[in-house]
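Chapter review: from sequence to fold.
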Amino acid sequence: MGAKMKWIAPSWNVWPKAFRDSFLLTHESWREVRDECERLMIGHFSTKNGDLDQRTELTAKQAQLFAAIGLEPPPKILGIHPRA
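The token string follows.
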């Protein structure tokens, strides 16, 4: 099974208000919030039966930040692509 990791890019049309309010909601600078959220990665796993895209587990800090900002974290499973 092959695995590749890549960073999860935020949906920029959803985040501007969260960027602005991140300090008020979390008492942390935008840079600290961004750095913590950039640790989220997507693993791409391939087998003879298909492909799976899955994000890394949220850290306690990431879960706290998403809750404080009022955003849902990305889904754990981002894609399942069976081979035909």
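Two observations follow directly from the output. The chain has a mean pLDDT of 80. The chain has three helices and four strands.
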